[in-house]
Amino acid sequence: MSDARLFESTLKSLRSRMGRAIAVPSCAAWSIERSPVPTVVARVSVNEFDRNLQEDRAAVPFFALCLAWWFEHFALFGAEAVRARVELDAALPETAHGHRAAFVLHELSRLVPARFTLSPSLVARWPERPVLNEGEADRDDAARPERGGEHAIEVAFTRQMDLPTQFAAIDAIEAFRRQLPVGVFDGEVRRATRWSPSGKSQIDLWAPSTDGSSIHLFELKDRGNNGLGILPESFWYTRLVHAIRCNNFVGRPIVGGGKAMDAVRAASRVSMWLLVQDHHPLVLADGASPLSELNAAMRDECVSIGVLPYAMIEGRVVLELSSVWR
Q1: Which pTM value belongs to this model?
Q2: Residue 29: CB partners within 8 Å, gap ≥ 6?
């Protein structure tokens, strides 16, 4: 039997251990199931997945996964392992957002089955002939100069000449590039065959290594934009780019993407970076992160997700390399 009061008391203990306020999406019914092992249970309507992945409401599976990991990390149930289960009330919607959520849940369940399960089991309609939309290999960074916020920071990464030198402490890269499009279509690229979000669904920044062996992806957030939604969003991009690199999208070859995808298909390693000025406490705290479990599961695939803090100092980007987590 699941116990909502036990969940609340355990979450309160976690807040105390972290010294941070942690709220969970109210769209889900949260509880703890004690038998046969402690399990964080989140019951949620599938309608919550028909929205932008960055929204906390759509990030319920990652809240459940992270909470289970932290409950175990702090031994809040003693020495027992803690699992997470997301319970859905119906099949996921046959929409672009719903399809993307299906791929994310499929990959999450497959990579860490001992930690995360979905109930009922996922039933999804995958594209028969997945094909990517194309974009410019090099975006015009002078476009729309009036825009500020994260757009301005993205542009700074492509224009600030010392940033590849700063990043060289991690890897030698050619240059930072903006907006890698990753919309998935079925058979051909047109509105009627769109399978996943396209258009604005693009990776913020990307950079191939100088030797072509690695492709670095960057999900950028400005100060104050520190929701947990960065995890499902970056996980979607990471797993999709890995599928493109291996030409295997849920057992199907995936084609298209144009010249912008040449570096992806040539790389032997994919590294995603959460490029943040601050972050959600469930992402990283005191040098520990649930990402360590995902990275362990992806190690043999040569795929990883790391945290790369940065600061804006007098209009310039400074990578905080001493605080990198990977």
Answers
A1: 0.95
A2: 4, 42, 43, 44
